[in-house]
Amino acid sequence: MHKFVTRIAIVNIGDIRPHEETDMMHTYELVRDILARGVLVKPIVVDEASMVILDGHHRFEALKMMGFKSIPVAMVDYFSDAIVVESWRNNIRPTKAEVIDHARSGILYPYKTTRHMVILDGKRYHISEVVPEVNYKVVANASKPGSEVVEKLVRII
């Protein structure tokens, strides 16, 4: 495990806070992909102190939609110098503190605003490239809340 990941844990989905919106169509596609694979390959990356999502908003929404109550996360120290926040958008330059504030306030950034990078050995990597896989088994369960909706969405997509 890379030194910037403090630990991998299974946490209550209600404790996790998004900071940006998601694209519903992409979320539906992820539901389908996760069910087809039978595993969630990468964990949701969160700041350990605030539980704010740094990477994995769509995976988070897909798992919520599938009715999961607990999910795997990679916890990091967001204020480590190894983690840098950038933007996909030219007109928005968020700081780490602003990312946390958006999550806490519930006023989310637009879809695909932030991009979290990690500096390792002088090179920049997107955080998703360096977080370890968890290969968390996902079992389709008709008794989970929302499963009827997920089943219909998977048929539609």
UniProtKB/TrEMBL annotation:
CDD domains: ParB_Srx_like_nuclease (cd16400)
Gene3D superfamilies assigned to the protein according to its UniProt record, in alphabetical order: Conserved hypothetical protein from pyrococcus furiosus pfu- 392566-001, ParB domain
Coiled coil segments of this chain: none
Superkingdom per UniProt: Archaea
InterPro entries: ParB/Sulfiredoxin_sf, ParB_N
Residues of the ParB-like N-terminal domain: 9-91
One Pfam family, short name: ParB_N
Cited SUPFAM superfamilies: ParB/Sulfiredoxin (SSF110849)
Protein name in UniProt: ParB-like N-terminal domain-containing protein
Organism the protein comes from: Thermofilum adornatum
